[in-house]
Write a structure and sequence with these properties.
Chain lengths: 406, 168
């Protein structure tokens, strides 16, 4: 093993401060406010944060290595488990990357469905963020409200994919199944009432003086710092970076939808809160457009050597049976090349880098998840602030350790 | 936005000719044409292969040309081919709404390259990850320690000669 530079974080002696020696405080990996298994090593002077060091890797499962041993289509269920609060978005990003390698044409209905499900995923992700963020601050009620609506989204996922969290519904070349009868009505019913629910959360928090005092002016990031530290998504947009790949580098027909990208220039935790609330309202509009304009037709591309045939056809047609056998036993070869595909998930800019050597297994799959980069900005946001602000800042960058450790 | 052709260009000269107006191509050629060893345009993505010793200067050149955001960096192990390691830097431009890939090839026995954390501090964790999982060293990195695996881990799991099940 080559020599490393730098010392393990706990070995460096804490510096001398104004009120005696600095204290080293270990936050996590089981601290309830650290969301999963994030461990922070803090050096504090009294109650002021002097140094903050995130120690990650507790959830590392080597998914990137596992991908190299699977067929392309077997990687889809692995992607669910990375950002486990946004399974459809993970599926989508991976499938878009492989479809780019295969140069597959996806039918409009599948694309509209993907947009709708990606936006439902964003709502799901933002609802959990809102509930846990408010709970960290001490507003316990909101959590119960947001989980009520999240439950409805999970039921929609279950209806369409048969699974609540690990959906694997978006597949290479299209979707796994036709949506069930009455599915669109259920989505419509959910969307009709959801804006009122957002008002409910807003009523509980936006005018709440304790909540405002804990959030306003905390964890400030300037636009230049955002670019330097690689922060993306709502956190970047709250600091004035007007960039959203849904609008600026559209994928999966997002260019055919009308929506606003909310931005702010305040750059603090409060601005991020308001921005995510505004994003939820925009997501509702996108889902409504997807429902209104849902095209008719196939949900998979016309590629029998890549997409599993219908069960019915398998029982009656020799060709379909052969294709099914071949895809399941030996996968499908993907032309050699390398692609990078990025999408906007609830947390920010997510990207998949897939390298193919022309065989049926990916040569290399790398995932870029926004939380990994956002953690680098944590020290900048917390330095010189009080210890209690750290909790507010962690909540505002909306991290899921599954996506950071992979 | 940058206008991009819908074809595959695998040859360096063909890419430089077809994309002569591309801001990243102009920036690299205007800075140091000798540092550009290969270029490829495939599936709408531009890949520029840079001499390893010049990566930091190349990043500064594309940064000055408007590619302001470091998005991602990772490695590919082409074992047993030589050169063995490929580093892929994905650089995004908020203004052009476009992404380029800078590619560097490194060989054993001691794969090492200059850090780009002086250009984009956000590369810090990404370089640590590549160090951790591939064993590529980044000279001048402020804190080059393992990031995902424990400090006393043996070997670099994403290398192709490391078994999927690990060593038992």
């Amino acid at each position: 093993m080559p020599d490393t530079i730098g010392t393990p974080v706990l070995e460096a002696p804490p510096a001398q401060g104004s009120e005696g020696q600095h204290m080293v405080l270990n936050m996590g990996p089981q601290h309830p406010a650290t969301h999963g298994v994030l461990r922070l090593v803090l050096e504090i002077d009294g109650e002021t944060v002097v140094r903050l060091y995130p120690e990650i890797g507790y959830l590392h499962t080597g998914i990137e290595k596992t991908c190299e041993a699977k067929f392309y289509h077997q990687v889809v269920p692995l992607t669910d488990r990375i950002d486990y609060l946004g399974p459809m978005a993970n599926n989508l990003c991976y499938c878009l990357a492989v479809e780019k390698l295969l140069e597959l044409e996806i039918p409009p209905k599948a694309q509209w469905m993907r947009v709708m499900l990606a936006e439902l995923t964003r709502l799901n992700s933002h609802l959990i963020w809102l509930g846990t963020h408010a709970m960290d601050i001490g507003a316990l009620t909101v959590f119960l409200y947001t989980f009520r609506e999240r439950e409805e989204i999970l039921r929609l996922f279950e209806a369409v994919a048969g699974q609540r969290m690990m959906t694997s519904y978006i597949r290479i070349g299209g979707l796994a199944l036709e949506p069930p009868v009455g599915f669109f009505d259920r989505v419509q019913a959910f969307i009709r009432t959801f804006p009122e629910k957002i008002d409910e959360y807003s009523n509980l928090l936006t005018g709440n003086p304790i909540f405002i005092n804990r959030l306003k002016g905390v964890g400030h990031l300037s636009a230049a710092q955002v670019v330097a530290l690689g922060v993306t998504g709502p956190v970047a947009r709250a600091s004035g970076i007007d960039f959203d790949v849904r609008r600026d580098m559209p994928y999966s027909s997002y260019e055919k939808f009308q929506f606003k990208v909310p931005t702010s220039t305040d750059g603090d935790v409060w601005a991020r809160y308001l921005l995510r609330i505004a994003e939820m309202r925009e997501s509702v509009k996108i889902i409504q457009q997807a429902l209104d304009g849902m095209p008719e037709g196939r949900i998979t591309a016309n590629a029998p050597k890549i997409i599993l045939p219908d069960r019915e056809k398998m029982k009656t047609q020799m060709e379909a049976l052969i294709h099914h056998f071949k895809i399941v036993t030996e996968g499908f070869a993907v032309p050699a090349g390398e692609v990078y595909q990025s999408i906007e998930t609830g947390h920010g800019l997510t990207g998949y880098y897939v390298v193919s050597d022309g065989t049926a297994k990916p040569y290399r799959v790398h995932m870029r998840y926004p939380g990994f980069a956002s953690l680098q900005a944590l020290e900048t946001m917390c330095k010189g602030r009080l210890l209690a602000d750290v909790v507010a800042v962690i909540g505002s960058i909306d991290i899921v350790l599954g996506e950071i450790d992979r | 936005m940058v206008d991009l052709p819908k074809i595959t260009l695998a040859d360096k000269n063909a890419v430089l000719e077809a994309l002569s107006g591309h801001p990243a191509v102009k920036a690299i050629l205007g800075w140091n044409p000798a540092a550009l060893t290969d270029a490829r345009f495939d599936r709408g993505e531009l890949t520029l292969t840079i001499v390893p010793a010049e990566i930091r200067a190349a990043c500064l050149a594309v940064q000055a040309a408007g590619y302001n955001f470091f998005e991602d960096m990772t490695a590919v192990d082409w074992f047993p081919q030589s050169p063995r390691f490929q580093l892929s830097y994905h650089i995004l431009s908020h203004a052009f709404k476009e992404r380029i890939r800078l590619r560097v090839l490194l060989d054993e026995p001691d794969p090492s390259i200059d850090t780009i954390t002086t250009v984009w501090p956000s590369a810090n964790y990404y370089e640590r990850e590549v160090f951790d999982l591939f064993g590529v060293r980044f000279e001048g990195h402020p804190n080059l320690r393992r990031i995902l695996l424990p400090d006393d881990w043996q070997g670099h799991p994403l290398r192709k000669d490391y078994p999927v099940e690990g060593y038992r």
